[in-house]
Queue: 2 jobs
Job 1
Amino acid sequence: MDNITIKGLTFEPYISHEEIAKQTERVAAEVKRDCATESPIFVCVLKGAFMFAADFFRAINMPKSEIAFIRYKSYSGTESTGEMNKILGLNDDIEGREVFIIEDIVDTGLTAHALRSDIEAMNPKSVKMVTLLYKPESLKIGKVPEYVGFEIPPKFIIGYGLDLDEQVRGLRDIYALKKDE
Ligand code: 5GP
């Protein structure tokens, strides 16, 4: 795989689609094993998690499970703004349900923390976090996610749903910003 340049920044190949697929299968198997009910609801956090959520939902293969979508926004360019705006709320009834939040990446933990509080306020049976990527060194608030595809250092990454100002979400592999950029 080659480096790619976007908006004047150079990104190098970081995680291949084969590795993503392998860890997605592993995480889906772990979640399935731990499910207390046959019909959990998976809440995909738009936009970044849409690709992971689709592959995870296929991999877990639970016919009575459901998928829902929610949208928050905290990033601008390559930095977290630190402010949470809920853009698209959850209309599904989740009271008494087993809920798994599906995230692309947990960075400062702000989004995950806000999501958990909002969902917990809706009285579900339980709430757990499934994230493809987790930056442990960047976590400032909230819990460590229960299910993690990859633990990574605090790099800025793109591809497989993750954007740079709304672009490059369609890349099938994950790329990291080169250190000297
Ligand atoms: P947090 O609230 O944990 O700081 O950040 C969560 C959200 O910020 C993620 O859902 C994702 O949309 C965005 N984000 C965090 N780190 C990265 C990154 O390395 N690359 C991209 N493209 N988005 C990120």
Job 2
Amino acid sequence: MEIIELVFATNNQNKVNEIRSILQTPFHVITLKDAGIDIDIPEPHATLEANASEKSSTIHRITNMNCFSEDTGLEVFSLNGEPGVKSARYAGEGRNFQDNINLLIEKLKGKPDRTAQFRTVVSLIWNNQEFLFTGICKGRIIEIQKGSEGFGYDPVFVPDGSDKSFAEMTMDEKNKFSHRKKAVVQLIEFLKQKVL
Ligand code: ITT
């Protein structure tokens, strides 16, 4: 069977772990580390789509290989879609996941509507052409964080259809609901039609 190599344009190891649990043989995910690339990929734009494109095109220019990136945001409805595209730096540059969670919980105090969604946009560059795929997971933000698996906002996000937070789930359980999994399944279907 032909192996399909794809460079994954990310510096987030948690994303690499999740993506590798989804993109299995015949796909082979090459990380930036594997490829010997050590750069801070720019994310200057106002939308997940534009940032995802920026990341994949930056890495495509360097490697000239088929590659993909993803940009993910947590969109909270009563906060007008915040933290959204700013999810990684919500509490400011150099802040960590816990600071971001604390700020989110603070901003939601007293708000009855705690519905939210994770949205992932994958940008694939295949044979020099770009294709976008989107995955959404709807759920809600809980008042007190729970669990220690996963990363980012996982301890405060409970997906619809579960009463566990993402941080209380194994990776396989999270994949049953996850935004990232839904976007990557579309990428897989697309590539299967192209090459398998
Ligand atoms: P790259 O740009 O290098 O891929 P990043 O961490 O900067 O990595 P994003 O720009 O997509 O990634 O930032 C999204 C942030 O949203 C991320 O740092 C987490 O805090 C959060 N996030 C993304 N996916 C998540 C998930 O599945 N569960 C919980 N939080 C998540």
